[in-house]
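Input/output pair, single chain:
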Amino acid sequence: MRPFVATLAVAACAAFVCTPAAAGEVFAGLGTSGVELGYATRLAPGTGLHVDGEFLSLKRKFEDNGASYDTKLKFSALGLYGDLFLGESFRLTGGAVIGSRKVEGTGVSSGGTITINGTSYVVAAGETVTVDAKFSSVSPYLGIGFGHAKASESVGFYFDAGAVFGKPKVRLTPSATLLAQAGQANVDAEQARLQEKMNKLRAYPVIKLGLTYGF
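Output:
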């Protein structure tokens, strides 16, 4: 976490240095990418820059192939965005999300068996299969939004809607006993099946809403 906070601080300082005479604003909000804190400034008439830190941690349970999965969705990322204003407040936004974005899940047999590559294997209590899906550490973002147009010493609001593009890479790791029963070839085939499903996720939808304060 410390390197991430340091990177955010450097990016925010760079925005101040690049535009020493420009008014700026701090902002905070919530969305599908989690909680975010950031800084925004105007670079020139009609253009701007904003940076933020995005943090998300969600848990979910589901059943698949005879196993009950406890999953976690975790984001800890830095967003760097350029804004092109069309009118007073509406803007087009493009940039990149840099950092860790992943889904982790550990499955435990819910009925005495776990299915891998179409075959069910009888497993003892405590046998598990773990699935990790990690997005690229740098992913492009495109979207539209309102806000960050004018900085004033008052509270305002902002809204963003867009998508972070990129497909996650899947890794399947069964416990040693389950691996011995299924064999590496079947594990690889099951991993490929999961990867094919994830490949359909070409973009992660982003919706954000929050408050700003200018200075």
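Helices lie at 2-18, 176-182, 184-198. The two ends are 28 Å apart (CA to CA).
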